Amino acid sequence: AENLAWMYFETFDSLLDKTAEERLEWAEAVSHCRSHEEIEKLRNKLSVDTLQFLLFLYVQQLNKVSLRTSLIGEEWPSPRSRSPDLDRKSGSQNKNTDDHNHLAFILNHLSELLELLLDPEQLTASAHSTHESLISVEAVKALSFLMEGTINQNGIVYPVHELALWQPILVTCGYSKLSKMFSFYKLQAWLKSVLGSNPFGSAVCLQKGKKLAWAQQVEGTTKRAKIACNTYTAPKGHKVVVMTQVYKQTLAKSSDQLNGAHVKIHRCNDSYIYLLSPLRSVSIEKCRNSTFVLGPVQTSIHIHSCDNVKIIAICHRLSTSSSTLCTFHCLTPTYPLIMSGNTSLIFGPYHTYYPMLEDHMARTGIATLPNYWDKPMCIGLDNCETPVYQLLSPKEFYVFVIPFEMEGDTTEIPGGLPPQYEKAKRHREQKIQIWQKTVKEAGLSKEQRKQFQNLVEQQFREWLALTGHRQQLDSLIPAPTSPKQAAA
Q1: How far apart are the first and last CA of the chain?
Q2: Where does the record place the region Disordered (predicted)?
Q3: Fold of 202-422
Q4: What is the pLDDT at residue 286?
């Protein structure tokens, strides 16, 4: 229970607007702690806005799993607003990408959200508001954690309390200059009348955002890869890149469009995707048989409903739900979260690098220590009976090489490898050296060396085909661009 409580607090803290320097200072302080007691003393120094934290805890209800949905794939129609998410043909709504469901949740629970912010004397004995209830400016400021808006759609985003205090609508919002408080019911009525879905969400991004010709269109497939971003129009903190239906290819990008963006990856199959930029958050949903190599992620990576995917990333928080046969090679200062519905997960140490990696880590405020990649926390009710994860055996460990040239100063894996994995790596390198020495000292003739080389190459090609790595190598070769794709 204590670890779970800290997880909520820590997750909320990661969403706050702190500088990279502040986060690195915290990481350094934690890494210097030598006991659990020292860590507890350090944690006790942290504080957050209580009202905002209450709102954060309340909205976790959005992700409650419906038993009916789990059993039949679709809930009985309800009065709440329903709208398609990225997967328009899916009967089961994905609440994390459905911006309209987010709006419906807020509208349907607005009264309860506002009541959380009331002072105790403004509540009845049953903890409900009355027609005379007043809500403070400080409480409305806390609402800015969930709500923002614009005036006349001028593009400038304001926190909700600044909009509520805008002179032309003070009366509509129920603000009293005498009491310096808002009427609970007038404020609630105003919010209900003006709230709309997120104009910077993933659905809007796909519909109206700039289309990016990053992916190849694979012939013979019925679904077309779609990649879009809103980075040219969205204000800071609202940049979104959406990627869906990338199929059987390698996609590699280090781009300004990705820097600080929320990345949504959806229904990508049999692909290798490299996004080598500092990112704000990443969600990977309904993907299969794919590898994702990500730049440092400032907040969280969430994997949902994926099958046989590999995630290689540095992130503040990693979580997974409803996924199977997935492998995670991560560096993270928090416990990875294993939610409900997972099976056959493997966790291994972070095992790669690219030249700009340490620079990107500094920009996202993530250090090499602490690193809790090997301490997943199971918080799903179905994780109690049988183990759903294991740590990668050192015998099965290999470093991962990012096959692209870039400028930068990073020349090794940040923080190095854990001793048992470093030992396994060196042992394998020694075996290769012994093999090379044996071949060199075998005294083969020129013809024998040629035959031997052909045999090794044949065995290697068979191994590539058997393991599926042939596709990865082939997809590294740029395909000729057709006139139709060039115009995309």
Answers
A1: 52
A2: 76-97
A3: Pectate Lyase C-like (2.160.20)
A4: 96
